[in-house]
Every structure is written in C-alpha cells, then in structure tokens.
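Raw record, unedited: Hemerythrin domain-containing protein
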Amino acid sequence: MTEQSAPTTRPQSVADLDTAELGGENSILARQRRDHDELDRMMNAYEQAATDGPERDELWRSIVQLVFSHAFAEETVLWPLLRRVSDDGEALTAVVEEEHQAVNELVAKVEEADPADPRRAEWIAEAFALIRQDIRDEEDELLPLLRAALDDRRLRQVGASWDAVRRGAPTRPHPGIPRRPPGNAVLGVPLSGYDRLRDLGARRPGVLAGAALSVTGAALLAARARRSGR
Ligand SMILES: [Fe+2]
Ligand SMILES: [Fe+2]
C-alpha cells in the first residue's frame, strides 16, 4: 500500500479522466463519479417533471437516499483519509462537510414541512444547487488529491470500504449529528436501521412497528457519546 504526501500542484479533475486513469471501475474515484452522475440525472429529471405526483415523489425519495448514504460514507471513510494524505485535506474537507450540513438542514425542512408549503420548492432548489456544488468541489479539488496520493490497488480498496459503509448508512437527513468521526459513526449507524425501516414503511406501513428498537438504541448511544464528551 502506498500513501504518500500529495504534490502541491493541483492535479486534473477526475471528471476529465477515463476509467483506467481513475484506477478501474471499482476504484473510489469511479464509484464516486457514477453516484454523482446518477444524482445529476435524477435531479434533472425531478426538475423537468411537469407536475407533482407519485413519480416525482419517488424521484425525490431516491435522491434523498442516495445523497445521504453517499455523503455519510464520505464523512466516515474518505475525508479522514484525505486529511491524512494531504496538507490541504483539513481545509478542503471542512468546506464539503459544511455543504453536507447545509443539505441536511434543507432536506430536513422539506421533509418536515406541510406538502402544500410553497417554500418547499425553494428549499429543494437550494439543496440541488448545494449538491451540484459539492460534486464539483469533490471532482475538481478533493478526489484528485486521492488520485495523486494513492496507487490503483489502494484506490480500489478504499472504494470497497466506502461502498460497504454506504450500503449500511443512514438514508435520511440528520442535521443534529456531527459530520466527523467518531460522532457521526456512533450516532449515525444506529439511525441507519431506523431510516431504512422508514423507507420500507413508506411503501408498507406495518413495518414501522419494529423501528422503535433502533430508535432506542440510537438514543442510548447518543446519551453515552454525550457523557463521554464526544
Ligand atoms: Fe461524492
Ligand atoms: Fe459529498
């Protein structure tokens, strides 16, 4: 494994690299770009949908699930690594963590608002603008530093770790939990079970009964984390 200090000159955006240059299709860079492209496609489709209705609701749900699971795995796996391998990591990851926090707050407002609230469209537009900015910052500034610091094999290992966390990550906004480890993992992982039950419950309401266990677990862990000063 080779982790070394990234060079000071700014590398090329990962948007301009082909799959081989990204380290293969399982590398973290290729996996990130696929999710970003999918988010972009869904946000465009949402904006182009003529009217509100079940199709648009389903698109919104898919965007929310992908945004938060993707970002949680970044906060847990990628940004701590970037802070280790690049002198610019601290400042750059602080910027994207702020973007993630703002998206969390906006989507939480959308989800809590009355469906007829006219401000929802404004908040959704703001959230989409922030997600697009986050994608540009990552592809143009942060991910190239990983490309510069890690060899292809390591990029694929990081890709596998990131994907494993993403598959068990929260799928809904949680603006109250920290954006950095260990707090995000301690509080976020238990919430993932609850989120996924709620996602299922949106289609099968009876499933929600079992969610109370996850909530209790999350509350206990939150109290423990607060007591230990995390
Ligand atoms: Fe990303
Ligand atoms: Fe992100």
